[in-house]
Each structure stands twice: as structure tokens, then as C-alpha cells.
User: What shape does this take?
Amino acid sequence: MRPATPADRPAVVELLVTLQADPEHLVGYHGVTAEELADELAGFTPDWASGAVVGTDDGGAVRAVLSAQVDPELGRAWLHGPFVDIPAGHPAGRQLWHNTADDLLDLALGLPRLAGVTDLELYGHRRNRRLGDFAARHGFAAGAASRVFTLTGSALRSVLVGVADSTPGPRLLDRDPRVRAEVVDLHERCFPNRTITGKQLVAGARGHTVVVLTGADGVLGYAAGLAQPEELYVDYVGVDPNMRAVGAGRSLVRALLRAMVAEHGARPQAAAVIALGNDASERMFSALGFDLHLELVGYRRR
Assistant: This one.
């Protein structure tokens, strides 16, 4: 076991590509599936090694990894992993997985990047029982499940080239201080368990594209997303309570996807994560053509 280095990136990507194909190993990362991590390692998080630890075999090959995304302002960390590659047919495979996972967590919590951070979160596929056992053993409480919805093919093209719902429609967030302040306020009200603050969002601290819908009384709603190498990820959609159920959310999502394509180029897929039980959001994304892809379960330790 040792802290990761930038030179470990190719081996870590190869390990993740192998393990994430199996739902029993699938781990979500910051509210999205593990499928995007290889892309993030390839370019979106160049400093990932400062928040990661690896386990190697006797020959030095990377066989395990645990990484973290840390937000010092929120005092939270989202753990991606642990991923442990156990040889097929190993007589003590389950015990070896848990022992390795425990060692990875102990080492990761000692990294300078996680110093003083005590609010930790994990996401995993509902069939990832090893992660569930690992979370329970380390004091992580199981939380609500969430669902990943995806949009591909002709359904995605239809959203990108279709006619906008409203006139005037949503537009890119500009530098208007009043509009930005209202987006911050709406974000804080809509997402009390947010993974990014409203101020960080409008400042572009994580690289979000943000579109807003305004009316005579100010901001009616906003949507924010991230363009990843293989995916357009819809991260947040916040709508004023008085504007819900009238198509504002759908209009915002369409505008956001188009804005991300205009800025970053087309992608083969769009995705969104919705808390289980949020029927209104599920209906909105389903109406746009999104289909259920998988279910994740969250675990949190404060």
C-alpha cells in the first residue's frame, strides 16, 4: 500500500475499466457512475493522485485503488472505491478484499488532502454487497438510493435539434450580479444536501455550464452540467416552486445540453442522477427520452 503517483494513472484506468464492468464492483463517484472516472483521470482531474492510494502485488502491478474528491469549503469528501482486483478462484477472496479495502481507507485518511475532513460519502451499485459491508464496518450509514438515467441515439439528437419550449427561453448565465445571486439562492434552497455551493457553481469552480430561465420577477430556474469526454452530465436542475409542472425543467435541460454541445462539442450520451422517490424529476427526464440505466445506494459518515 502506498500513496498514488501520476505515473500510476494508466494502470489505475486499466484496473477500473476491468472491474467497473461488473455491477458487483460498480461504485459511483460524486453522484455519478464509475464509468466516468477513467475520463476524469485522463484529463478532468490532473491532481487526482494527491487524493488517491493504491495497492500493488509483489511485482509492483496496481491491484487496488481508492481515491477521493475533497471540497475543503464544504468539509466533505467523496470516496471512489475501494476497487480491489482479487484473482479468480482465490480461496479467501472475500477476506482478502475486505482486508485490502480496510488498509486502503486507513492510508487514504492519512493523506494531507483529507486532513480534517470527517464528512465522507460513498456510492455503489445496489448489488455491490462488499461495498455495503465495508460501509457498515466503518460507520457509514446507508442513505437513499438514486437512479442513473441516460439519453442516447436518436432521442438525444431530438433534444439537441428540437424547437425550444419557451420564448424567451433559457440562456447562458452571464455576469449580471442580481441573476447570479438569485441562482445561488435558488440552488441553496433546492439542494440542501448539495455537493457544491451556489457560489462555487456560478463561479465555475468545478467547470459547470449553467443556463438560467428568467421572467419579470427574476430567476425562474436554472440547470447546470458538466461536459465529460464521453458524456453530457446534467448535475443540477432547480426550478422555482411556482414554475414547476409547466415545462420549465424540460426547457432548461434542453438548453443546457445544447449549450454544452456548443461549448464542448457533441457527446454520444447524456446522463442524470435522480434520488429515488423524486417522481417529478423522473417524469421530467423520461419525457425528454431518458431511460433508467442503473441504481446506486449512498453511504455517509459524518
